[in-house]
Design a protein that fits this description.
Layout: E1 2-4, H1 7-19, E2 24-29, H2 35-47, E3 50-55, H3 75-84, E4 89-91, H4 95-98, H5 110-113, H6 116-120, H7 124-139, E5 143-147, H8 151-163, E6 169-173, H9 193-198, H10 201-214, H11 220-234, E7 239-246, E8 261-269, E9 272-280
Parallel strand pairs: 1-4, 2-3, 2-5, 3-4, 5-6
Antiparallel strand pairs: 7-8, 8-9
Helix pairs in contact: 7-8, 10-11
This protein binds pantoate.
Pantoate binds at residues 28-30, 58, 61, 128, 131-132, 150, 153.
Length: 282
């Protein structure tokens, strides 16, 4: 596995590989790999000749009081895991490699960013869309693979690619969970032992909501209220950022569940802000 820091070098190499007829896949990450990341690398490996993984903690997607400086990292361990999963190129640029001091070009998808995480993290998706565009331009992939835990992010990237005619096949892959049901996240490292025991209730609550919908309940306000009560009972001390039921494509709130719906939540448990979601197929 080759480690490249320089964006220009990666772009030149990738263009050369494409010219040789190689299919290139990119897995964009912020590192501190867990099984979720590794499953994306495996999915990329199954379909491409060359797998590039980018590891870059992108400062522009963090707000002023967020965990940019505390974001967990372990390059040595990540490089070993990536290599074990057949990654060909690990792209590890520095902040200066990625952004000029006077960087002033932004990519925004305001409609899809208005709800859920975009509401509580106002600059987040502008930073994500911008850095993913830069990564696409740099790595020149045919295919890019993202996790469905960040469902809104995936929807935004798919819309961005469509609207800007970016020739990348954007693929989503299912959430990987611990046996307890807790969605894997690099931020789970912030949880204490006790919080880790309670955090799986986030998914448990979503499943209960789906069961209620299966039994015919379809009023979103009532379902959301029940879920909020479940969280305050089962995860004492937690703080709900949002519980929403949205259309999976437009990310707009639904009042009544009559077709496919995404129930998405963000819950603060101790120092961690955890997101999760469940697609409800009616
Ligand atoms: O999902 C992530 O880890 C990040 O938002 C991404 C897509 C790598 C952009 O920084």
């Amino acid at each position: 596995m080759e480690i490249i820091n320089n964006p220009q070098e990666l772009q030149t190499l990738s263009l050369m590989l494409r010219a040789e007829g190689k299919k290139v896949a990119l897995v964009p990450t912020m590192g501190f790999f867990h099984e979720g990341h590794l499953s994306l690398m495996d999915a990329a490996r199954r379909q491409a000749d060359v797998v590039i993984v980018s590891l870059f903690v992108n400062p522009t997607q963090f707000g002023p009081n967020e965990d940019l400086d505390a974001y967990p990292h372990n390059l040595e361990r990540d490089a070993k895991l990536a290599e074990e999963h057949g990654v060909d190129i690990l792209f590890t640029p520095t902040r200066d490699d990625m952004y000029y001091e006077d960087h002033s070009t932004w990519v925004e998808v305001p409609d899809l960013a208005a709800n859920l995480c975009g509401k509580s993290r106002p600059v987040h998706f502008r930073g994500v869309a911008t850095v993913v565009t830069k990564l696409f331009m740099t790595a020149q992939p045919h295919v890019a693979v993202f996790g469905e835990k960040d469902w809104q992010q995936l929807a935004i990237i798919k819309r961005m690619v469509r609207d800007l005619n970016i020739p990348v096949d954007v693929q989503g892959h299912p959430i990987v969970r611990e046996e307890s049901g807790l969605a894997l996240s690099s931020r789970n490292v912030y949880l204490t032992e006790d919080e880790k025991k309670k955090a799986p209730m986030i998914q448990q609550g979503l499943r209960q909501m789906r069961d209620a919908v299966d039994k015919g309940k379809n009023n979103a306000a009532e379902l959301k209220e029940e879920l909020a009560a479940f969280y305050s009972r089962e995860i004492p001390g937690s703080r709900v950022d949002y519980i929403e039921i949205v259309h999976p494509g437009s990310i707009e709130n639904l009042d009544i569940i009559e077709g496919p719906a995404l129930c998405a939540v963000a819950v603060h448990v101790g120092k961690a802000r955890l997101i999760d979601n469940l697609l409800i197929k009616v």
